[in-house]
Amino acid sequence: MNETLKTLLQHRTIRKYSDQPISDQDLELILKAASSGSTMGGMQLYSIIVTRDKEKMKEMAPFHFNQPMATQSPLILTFCADFNRFNKYCLFRDADTTAYNNVQAYHWAIMDAMIATQNACVAAESLGLGICWLGTVIYNADKFVDYLKLPAGVVPLVSITVGHPVEKPEPPYKLPLEAVVHYEEYQDYNEQSINRLYKEVESHPQTLQLLEENQLPNLARIITEKRYKKEDNLYFTTVINQVLKKQGFL
Amino acid sequence: MNETLKTLLQHRTIRKYSDQPISDQDLELILKAASSGSTMGGMQLYSIIVTRDKEKMKEMAPFHFNQPMATQSPLILTFCADFNRFNKYCLFRDADTTAYNNVQAYHWAIMDAMIATQNACVAAESLGLGICWLGTVIYNADKFVDYLKLPAGVVPLVSITVGHPVEKPEPPYKLPLEAVVHYEEYQDYNEQSINRLYKEVESHPQTLQLLEENQLPNLARIITEKRYKKEDNLYFTTVINQVLKKQGFL
Questions:
Q1: What is the pLDDT of residue B110?
Q2: H-type helices in A98-163, by residue range?
């Protein structure tokens, strides 16, 4: 197996980092890799905000719900869907600046931003660094828009913390490959296949510990009642919709 | 520089493939790499549809606007945002099945699907294979939903064609790194910075050839008037909105 496949297959989320900073050389390689992926029509519809200033990390920490990684990593990269730069290019070339103020174009920009994000993650891991996705950006997108001074056309999607690992966690539990892969057409799930596909996850020691801690009978109940509750999701849907409207995509 | 960085930095879109099929071993490595990335709360909110049947490729070709790659590659992988599997898991565990019928949750599933997509691309390229993103899926999402039999909770986002390359195209032109990277906060663009950042792209031989072919004065006008026109984007916005409503996210 080649080195790249090993890097991809050995991915672990790393939440604890040493104080060692990321070298300028490593940062540049990560950013170059991020910008080397495919992009819709060559438009490069994303931007990356580099945070190394510890004071700024502390100020943004509440928007990340004070997750420790958000202040304890030496580097945070925030990836944004960005049509502002391309719209500005159109503005200064007498071209239509309103062609991309819609949900279709927003999807292209999300994809471009996510290609860049995942390339950055793989690059960082290939350099022996550890990364963690902070999904909190899409929850508190309004606050990141203000704090990072994002103009219309720019929507923050995710932050990645990057650092030198001081932990080596167990591999995350995953569904078997057959759970996520379909051949030629989608095969919907029934009670029998769900039971079979989730069997390993449900009997995993990490899951059993969670059931004990939460005093709930299964992982589905923990996730829907404790971690990602409907009422929260509906509230943060209104936030992201307001951001999409303010930034010009809705 | 390590092998993984080389793979990332040497990315080229490959549109021409030999007839040689992708081996089962390579396909399995690509799919395993795709499923090895980060995922929101461990939920694995994506599915991958594998297309190897040439008849099915031909039937789907019109939905890809008959791009040659859509029938001439030996393998197409279609990546979908997928909350159906997790919702079904909730259904069979007496948990809330409606917590994720919203735009916030849709964003998580898009991100999970894009992590898987980009990992698959990097894995394929590390194996010496070539890939091409087909953005047409998000245009004709309604047709892919029907053809691939995607149930509620599943939205098709992108297809990747994979094959053994028979071309070695020039590296794509990119904006300089400073165009997409911001330090600590977003620095908005003005006419001067746009002129500077787009100078290399605008003087690239590929661009000059496009201007000649299209008889238009600049790339912005070509993209807004020929390639990605406002009227098309608005039409395909209605399509994706209908799909998001039908699939339960709006």
A1: 98
A2: 103-126, 136-139, 141-147
pTM here is: 0.98
Longest Cα–Cα distance of chain B, Å, equals 63
- Which 3 state secondary structure label does DSSP give B38? coil
Assess contact for A176 and A164: CB atoms under 8 A.
Answer: no
B211 burial type by CB count under 10 A (0-12 exposed, 13-18 middle, 19+ buried): middle
The whole-angstrom separation of Cα A76 and Cα A244 is 23
3-state secondary structure of B1: coil
Report A:59-118 residues touching B (Cβ under 8 A): 82, 84-85, 88-90, 92-96, 98-100, 102-105, 107-108, 110-111, 114-118
- Helix (H) / strand (E) containing A232: helix A230-246
* Alpha-carbon distance values, B184 to A56, A60, A86, B150, B187 (Å): 8, 11, 21, 42, 9
A175: contact with B, CB 8 A cutoff: yes
Distance CA A112, CA B26 (A): 26
Query: What token pair was written down for A212?
Result: 């004990």
Strand partners, A48: A79, B181
Closest to A41 measured CA to CA, from B139, B99, B59, B47: B139
Give the pLDDT confidence score for residue A171 in this predicted structure. Answer: 83
Best probe of the A interface among B22, B24, B30, B38, by most A CBs < 10 A, is: B38
A214: contact with B, CB 8 A cutoff: no
Query: How many C-beta atoms lie closer than 10 Å to residue A59's C-beta?
Result: 12
Domains of chain A: 3-170 (3.40.109.10), 177-227 (no CATH)
Among B47, B43, B155, B44, residue whose Cα is nearest residue B106: B155
The pLDDT averaged over each successive group of 10 residues in chain B (250 residues) is 97 97 98 98 97 98 97 98 98 98 98 98 98 98 98 98 96 93 98 98 94 97 97 98 98
Residue pairs between chains A and B whose CB atoms are closer than 8 Å? 351
- Pairing of the two strands A46-51 and A75-82: antiparallel
Chain B contact for A124, CB < 8 A? Answer: no
Residue type, B3: E
Contact present, A28 and A172 (Cβ < 8 Å):
no
**By the CB < 8 Å criterion, does B189 face chain A?**
yes
| pLDDT of A27 | 98
Both tokens assigned to B25: 């071993």
A88-146, pLDDT tens digit by residue?
Answer: 999 999 999 999 999 999 999 999 999 999 999 999 999 999 999 999 999 999 999 99
Q: What letter would DSSP give residue A225?
A: I
Provide the residue type at B144 as one letter: F
Residue B170 burial (10 A CB sphere; 0-12, 13-18, 19+) = exposed
Residues of chain A with pLDDT under 50: none
Residue B50 forms beta bridges with which residues?
A183, B77
